[in-house]
């Protein structure tokens, strides 16, 4: 008998009617002879409502107590789901984080899972019950409730699948799988049948919102196959799996973009040891996440330093960096918010030469200027002018043979 | 340093503003040098909202899962309260039933407390924290969430006070104490300074809604002084305490009434052994709670049997009893919904003769006919016509010297 872990997000369980639809689907798969573990998020809007309540008390609520508060959202979902399954004539049982138990560290609001006790779940599965587990929550070493951060239910599902040695972890969402690129930008985007963990990690970190990045890391670490599929259809979605040598694979798997960054350039920086850390210290200290960093080769003892930050942190960064630039005697600080990052991803790059060349040529052919370049083993990212984003995505998608057949 | 357990009900914590007011009051008492344990109910309306959600799924939700659902209400309250106290600059910590732990049996929806671990609470009190505990909820032997039934937060508070050997358990409510009778019926009702456990038990079981009856039983068993007082004033309320021999006490403490019963009479019942159990068997089997039962002395081998049931169960009872009356050869079954029960309560009755006589005379003087009588050691109840209820309460209140001085 196969163990299947399914995760349904907030919109999938947003009302008692939707919970019933989910229950019927779960029962169907259960009746096909599978042992079912169902991880649920809070009903859509619940978590935001609770956060709003806390913010009426204080702008900075105590993290431990905020987790106690937020954990109620998933608790409501699993109780209603188990009731529904039982009202449909099958046996079911809900478990909260502390009951499983899902052991985490005590970083409230962004806790990490250490390990999971599976005895009670396995016992209930073997007794024929459909088991439902509250996503997003765990128990720390003090016996206190923790939450795993936004999107944490994905992580709960994958971690449970790993601990239970499940056959598959199915993530149900409002799209029908992982696409080669954003279908809203590129009508020829294709749903992938499968994608490797590393590629999915790059896609997620580059802005594809289908899977929470930590759940993919977990799946990779424990080799849990993830099936990303739609709550609203019965079609197969996309399998996220481990790389295998004999799998025939295209060189480039997907094209991603991100319009949410801004660029900061400091010109004529005196090139001496430790200068980069001097510049970035106030930025890091302010909790600003720096993405790409490019430093040109030094000319006559001076260099230009360029980096990108989230658009929301742009003005703050400009202020911090302008102060430090004056102190170290740099020439000036330039900023640009009208940029976008376009990336191609694929494990095939490791063994195929000329991928970068083809990317640059493809953009050049459309007169799209490349402002910055950053590469990893399985990804090439270019910063371009924002207005060219959609065009760049479409021509790259086409150039690397990703377009759906007409 | 004194340990004080305070319990606030749903209306007292019905909004973030009200929670802040409660927090400020708790902090005040804490700063006077007391160790504070605060038991909270769910915010007003929350529990009803959750029950409605469950009822949309099924009219008969699974009891275990219903408890998982309902327990979220108190969880929200304690998290918000602890946040509020911390935002006001003091240390606070919330605990749920499973964290304390409050161990109960597994009768979901009406669980009974077995015992309470106090280590974590005491440790936190000694570290200077204000401790808040979710009312109404516990943990059973399987590690599952239970709830104690409506009004269960009172029981949580008293049980915690007993386990912690607290100096007092303060129950905050929307009235300012326990009254000699319902002030809405009798304008001369007086707030009592104190009342004995046994009297409070009779008052509660006769319809006075100030305290949940199980919490009074608990308080009596463990000799926990309860202080019933108002959330909205600083006045002293009513102390519910153990009986002491030397305490000067009036003969009658209070007058209670209950309009929620109906009367059933079976005439000319053949008087033979086991006849009563034959008659009541189908009634008890249907889960109907029978209150007063009166059987007249047998005349020529026949007797009349009269009893009262909740009005909601009247028609069901009439149907069940009519069937059994025919079977046993009784004459007929009479029913009456227009009745009320008026009772006088007081431990002084044990040592004072003539109390019953005075009650009957007082009612007779107003031409109020007594339909049934039932007495216990500290209580006399009379069933009368419903329309005389208010009059009966007022004249009894006056006759036994309970009227407030003009």
How would you describe this structure to a colleague?
The structure is a homodimer of 406-residue chains. Chain A is of the alpha/beta class and 406 residues long. Chain A has a domain at 3-173: Carbamate kinase. Helix content of chain A is 35%, strand content 26%. Chain A contains twelve helices and 20 strands. The first copy, chain A, has an eight-stranded mixed sheet with strand order 3-6-2-1-9-11-12-10, sandwiched between helices. In chain A, a hairpin with a 5-residue loop joins strand 7 (137-139) and strand 8. In chain A, helix 6 (152-163) packs parallel to helix 8, helix 9 (275-285) runs antiparallel to helix 10 (314-328) and helix 11 (355-365) packs across helix 12 (389-399). The two termini of chain A are 41 Å apart. The relative contact order of chain A is 0.10. The model of chain A has no long low-confidence stretch (mean pLDDT 92).
